[in-house]
Amino acid sequence: PVLQSAMVIEFPEVQGKMGRRYAERAGEDASVALAIEEHYKPLGPTDDVPTDPVSVTVALADKLDTLTGFWAIDEKPTGSKDPYALRRAALGVIRLLLENGVRVQLDRLFDAQILLCEIDTADDDDQAALLKAVLHEIATHGVFSAAVRAIIDRIEGDAPEWVEKITGHKPDVSDDLLSFFHDRLKVFLKDEGVRHDVIDAVLTRHSDDLLAVTLKARALQKLVETDDGENLIQGYRRAANILSAEEKKDTKIAETVDPDLFETDEERALFETLEDVEKLATNAIEAEKYEEAMSRLASLRAPIDAFFETVHVNAEDGKVRANRLALLARIRAATATVADLSRIGG
Question: Which of 29, 178, 220, 276 is buried deepest, with most CB atoms within 10 A?
């Protein structure tokens, strides 16, 4: 109705607003009418972010559809050129996810949408049947790789060559789009005051849950600003450096820590603290309480300091040495559950 009436053509500033009014007059649900108005939000870094579930869903769908569509045809921002405002669209997705606490596995969304774009532009008689199969199988499996396999199996006879081509092409495109989102998230978090090395410590190449990454980054940023946090990182770095040096020399490291081989109280204290911290940190992570997890890990600071002050890791007894190295490996593994502390600058 808005476009048919030419209202937005004459008055561009009422885009969305008039659509909402028309929808309300037509008897649409209030959430639907609001979603029409907030369809394109947020338009910039200071624009309000929709909070109504329907508005959030529509705004996310529009921006993700735009981004995957442009990536599918290899039309991406280059340098300072971004004629289709794709960076702004990605920032909009990030703000919608973070400010509404939305958990989304972006790689799965990209996978499915990019495949649909490829199918939609393919010139093949089997296109309509395959499209139905795509929708059916993705809905059934919820996992892209399984869906693709099932799609090909559903087609009578051999799958068309272009099907194999687009399913093979998809991962590169999807990974590149995820990397683009990572770059946008880095800019967003830096503007928020999070250090670049902190971001690098929690963001991996395959990180697709941007809310989890952000919560971890904020928690780690708070930790590194404390004395306990800085000292924990120093202790971690010392343990990691010793392990790295010994691993390069193929030194034997015990698979598990044997408390019966401890010779000092400091070893026992560190081991007992680790046992408690690992459980508490794991529970906090599962509950997505990353600040609590970081705080638990910070409690390792004192026993780690005491360990290095009194214990000689490279003991003459091979079993004792291997056991102490295994204890250091436990420290490295415990901290890795929330961040790669080796990425934190000294």
Answer: 220
125 Cβ neighbours under 8 A, 6+ residues apart: none
- Least Cα distance to 299 among 327, 273, 266 occurs for 273
Q: Are 54 and 32 in contact (CB under 8 A)?
A: yes
Contact 15, 5 (CB under 8 A): no
Between CA 108 and CA 314 the distance in angstroms is 47
* Residue in the structure block whose two tokens are 């209030």: 30
Closest CA to 213 of 180, 229, 189: 189
Q: Which residue stretches of the chain are H helix?
A: 2-5, 7-10, 17-25, 30-37, 53-72, 86-99, 106-121, 127-141, 144-154, 161-191, 196-202, 210-224, 227-248, 265-286, 290-298, 301-310, 318-336
Residues of the chain with CATH 1.10.730.10: 223-343
Whether pTM exceeds 0.85:
no
pLDDT per position as a tens digit, 300-345: 989 999 999 999 999 999 999 999 999 999 999 999 988 999 999 8
Taking a C-beta distance cutoff of 8 angstroms, is the pair 201, 88 a contact?
no
Q: What is the mean pLDDT of residues 25-35?
A: 91
CB 267 within 8 A of CB 327: yes
Amino acid 306: pLDDT: 94
Query: Phi and psi at residue 81, in whole multiples of 5°?
Result: -90, 125
Phi/psi for 78 (5° steps) reads: -130, 125
Apex CA 292: angle with CA 236 and CA 330, to 5°? 30
Architecture of domain 223-343: Orthogonal Bundle (1.10)
| Partners of 78 in the β-ladder | 81
The C-alpha angle 129, 145, 54, rounded to 5 degrees, equals 75
